[in-house]
Design brief:
Elements: E1 9-11, E2 18-20, E3 26-27, E4 33-34, H1 36-48, H2 50-53, H3 67-71, H4 76-90, E5 96-100, E6 107-111, E7 118-120, E8 129-131, E9 137-138, H5 148-155, H6 164-168, H7 170-184, E10 186-187, E11 194-195, E12 203-205, E13 212-214, H8 266-288, H9 291-300, H10 302-305, H11 311-316
Antiparallel strand pairs: 1-2, 3-4, 5-6, 7-8, 8-9, 10-11, 12-13
Helix pairs in contact: 7-8
C-alpha cells in the first residue's frame, strides 16, 4: 500500500486536510505545507505583530517561509504592510532608513544621510506631501514654476515653507520622542525589539531572538545579579527586598515594602512602573535642553506642548523604582 506522499498527497500543517503536492498554499523548505484557507489565518497572525513575526517562519520547524509564496496569499492592503515591515528588517539602519507616507501605506528607502524633511507620496490615489518630522500634510506645488499666489500659500501657517522650523528642531524632537517611547515600553537587551509585558511575571523571553531577560531592570539573564552565579533567572529574584541589584518576580510584590505600588493589580503596578521610567526620561531631557529651547519646541510641535504629563511630579517626585528601608 502506497503512503499519501508516495501518491503525491501531503497534509496541511494547520487543519490536516489532504493537498496535492503542488498546491497553491505555502510550503517551507522542510516540507511542511499550509493550505490556502489556513494561509489567510497565517497572514493575519503574521501581520498582527509584524515587528516580531517578519520574516515569517514555519510554526513547526521555525525555518523561514518562502516570501514569494506567502505574498501570493495576501490582499493588496496586506501586501503593502508586509513589504514595508520586510523592508524595515532588510535595510541596514546604519546606512538606510524607511520613510513612509502618513496617509497611506506607500514607503521608500532613503539613505540615512538624506536630510530632506519633505516626503512626496507617489501612490496614484494619494500623492500627498508631508513633513517627515511632524508628519503633517502640506499642499504639493504643481510644478517648479510657482506663482506668487502659490508662494503666499506656502508661507501661510501649515504651508510647505513653514516646516523649516520642524527641521530646525528635528534632533530635539527626536530626543523627546525617544524619551517618551523608551518610557512606555521595554526593549529586549539583545535585539532591541520593544513591547509591553502581559499581566504575568517579570521574566521575559523575546519572541524575536529568544533571549531571556528581566522586564524590571532590562538586563539579559547572563548579566543579572543572582544568588547563584550559575543559576537561572529565578535566582535573580531572591532577596530583592533588601538587595537593590535584584528584582521582584511580580510587580505587585513591591507594594509589600513600598506603598506607592499596587499590591492588588498588576495593571496598576505596570502603569506606575512605566510612569517612573517616562518621568525619569523627561527629567533627563529637561536637564539636557534649556528652558527656551523647550518652549520653542512646544511652539513648533503642538503634541509636545500638550504632552499631558505632570511637571510638578517630573521635577519633584522620588523616581527611585523601589524605596527600600535603609
Amino acid at each position: 500500500m502506497k503512503s499519501l506522499k508516495a501518491k503525491g498527497i501531503v497534509k496541511c500543517l494547520s487543519c490536516g486536510d489532504a493537498l496535492f503536492r503542488e498546491h497553491d498554499g505555502v510550503k517551507c523548505n522542510q516540507g511542511h505545507d499550509v493550505c490556502t484557507d489556513c494561509c489567510k489565518t497565517l497572514v493575519e497572525n503574521i501581520l498582527s505583530e509584524p515587528e516580531t513575526k517578519i520574516p515569517a517562519e514555519c510554526s513547526l520547524c521555525k525555518v523561514k517561509l518562502n516570501s514569494v509564496r506567502l505574498e501570493m496569499q495576501m490582499t493588496p492592503d496586506q501586501l503593502e504592510v508586509y513589504l514595508m515591515y520586510k523592508a524595515m528588517k532588510d535595510v541596514d539602519p546604519k546606512v538606510d532608513k524607511v520613510m513612509s507616507c502618513p496617509f497611506c501605506k506607500y514607503f521608500e528607502i532613503w539613505a540615512k544621510a538624506n536630510s530632506s524633511n519633505f516626503f512626496y507620496c507617489k501612490k496614484q490615489d494619494c500623492k500627498k506631501g508631508s513633513c517627515s518630522v511632524c508628519f503633517k500634510e502640506f499642499k504639493v506645488p504643481k510644478g517648479m514654476a510657482v506663482t506668487e499666489d502659490e508662494l503666499g500659500k506656502m508661507k501661510e501657517e501649515g504651508g510647505m515653507l513653514t516646516h523649516h522650523k520642524c527641521y530646525e528642531y528635528k534632533d530635539v524632537k527626536e530626543d523627546w520622542d525617544k524619551a517618551i517611547e523608551s518610557g512606555t515600553k521595554r526593549c529586549c537587551p539583545e535585539c532591541k525589539v520593544g513591547g509591553i509585558k502581559d499581566d504575568a511575571c517579570t521574566h521575559m523571553i523575546c519572541d524575536n531572538c529568544n533571549t531571556v531577560w528581566c522586564y524590571f531592570c532590562g538586563k539579559k539573564e547572563s548579566d543579572l545579579d543572582k544568588s547563584d552565579p550559575n543559576g537561572n533567572i529565578f535566582k535573580h529574584n531572591e532577596d530583592w527586598e533588601i538587595n537593590d541589584k535584584r528584582c521582584p518576580m511580580y510587580l505587585t510584590q513591591i507594594g509589600q515594602i513600598d506603598d506607592r505600588w499596587s499590591c492588588d493589580s498588576d495593571k496598576e503596578a505596570k502603569a506606575f512602573f512605566h510612569k517612573l521610567l517616562t518621568y525619569k526620561n523627561i527629567r533627563n531631557f529637561y536637564r539636557k535642553y534649556k528652558k527656551r529651547e523647550f518652549k520653542e519646541l512646544c511652539k513648533v510641535f503642538i503634541s509636545v506642548e500638550n504632552h499631558g504629563f505632570n511637571n510638578q511630579e517630573i521635577f519633584f517626585m522620588n523616581l527611585t523604582k523601589i524605596i527600600r528601608e535603609s
